[in-house]
Design goal:
Pfam families: MFS_1, Sugar_tr. The chain is an all-alpha fold and 335 residues long. It has two domains: 53-112, no CATH class; 134-192 and 204-334, Growth Hormone, Chain: A. The chain has helices spanning 2-14, 30-48, 56-61, 65-80, 96-112, 114-128, 134-156, 159-172, 180-193, 205-216, 218-232, 234-251, 258-286, 289-320, 323-334; strands at 21-23, 26-28. The chain is globular, with a radius of gyration of 25 Å.
């Protein structure tokens, strides 16, 4: 979440300035530099992941207690500074079923090879999450992630564009109140009347500041979620978040200036980010350990699909029929 707040701040520092490289028809301007800088952390994470050990709980569920014990020793050494050999636990006990599973897995590894065994394991896990009793949790997880992220990404991705449209409207009509739909119609009509060759890539600095405030509003709500998650429960935060963010989505239809738009956007960002944290915890806990990675992966696919649908649908409906996006998002979140 702190990284998300850094993103609009970094954009504010880079994009409005005339920096870059121009060589004939080749233009490498400020927004491209911004994207290049934003790509660096991904490569850093990819490298650091190679040094991250596997979860001991997962290894135990696979029957590999020797490697799990070695990881526990490394954790003990890192936390206490004492030698690994002084770790008080000398052996991890597993039940008969897990031991049998490990022995069978070893035999299959010899016969079929590591790659084929891994593929069979993936297919087996995928089948298990789509059969009872796990099927119920899978359907719930997919449904919640899909609908939640349609609203989450559908509006969050378009808040900067709304800020930019309010800025354009206030430039032409200073001090005049207007709803989101009136501002949208003005910008769409202005774009249709403008010369197609007269294209400006300039974005006012206030747009980045408003985006920064909107994203930063999620920081205190996430802190509250972290402190109260175990006390009040995951479901409480998820229900509170979806209901409140749904009301904020409806409220977007009734704002009449950029300040109101900023306040509603910030509240929406705060409460829905809190719900996103609760949803991640809830999804992680409903799947058993041996199926957790596969279950979360399926859930994340649904979440990304919801983000794509929300982004595309909101973009189209906002210009075609402005009231629809806010009420669709509200219905999906509250429902």
């Amino acid at each position: 979440m702190y990284a998300s707040a850094c993103c609009p701040g970094l954009a504010w520092l880079i994009i409005p300035h005339d920096v870059g490289l121009t060589e004939g028809s080749f233009i490498y301007n400020s927004w491209r530099i911004f994207l290049l800088i934003c790509s660096v952390p991904s490569f850093m994470v990819a490298v650091l992941l190679f040094f991250l050990p596997e979860s001991p709980k997962f290894l135990l569920s696979r029957g590999d207690h020797d490697l799990a014990l070695e990881i526990f020793r490394n954790i003990y050494h890192s936390n206490t500074g004492k030698p690994r050999e002084t770790y008080p636990v000398k052996q991890l006990l597993i039940d008969g079923k897990e031991q049998e599973k490990k022995e069978i897995g070893a035999e299959v590894m010899v016969v079929t090879g590591k790659l084929r065994d891994t593929f069979n394991d993936i297919m087996d896990n995928s089948k298990q999450i789509f059969i009872p009793p796990i099927l119920r949790f899978t359907i719930i997880s997919i449904t919640i992630n899909l609908t939640f992220h349609i609203g989450y990404y559908g509006l969050m991705m378009w808040f900067p564009e709304l800020f930019n449209r309010f800025n354009k409207y206030s430039t032409v009509h200073p001090g005049k109140a207007a709803s989101v739909c009136e501002v949208t119609n003005f910008v769409v009509n202005m774009g249709g009347q403008a010369d197609s060759l007269d294209c400006s890539d300039k974005i006012e600095s206030s747009v980045f500041l408003e985006s920064l405030i909107t994203v930063a509003a999620a920081i205190p709500s996430n802190i509250i979620a972290v402190l109260g998650m175990d006390r009040l429960g995951r479901k409480f935060f998820l229900v509170f978040s979806t209901f409140t963010s749904g009301l904020c989505a409806v409220g977007m239809y009734f704002v009449y200036n950029s300040t109101h738009n900023l306040v509603v956007s910030a509240v929406f960002s705060g409460v829905i980010s809190c719900g996103n944290a609760a949803l991640d915890c809830l999804i992680t806990e409903i799947f058993p350990t041996n199926l957790r990675a596969t279950g979360i992966a399926i859930s994340m696919v649904a979440a990304r699909l919801g983000g794509i649908i929300g982004n595309v649908v909101i973009a189209q409906l906002l210009d075609l029929y402005c009231p629809a996006p806010t009420f669709i998002v509200a219905a999906l979140l509250i429902g």
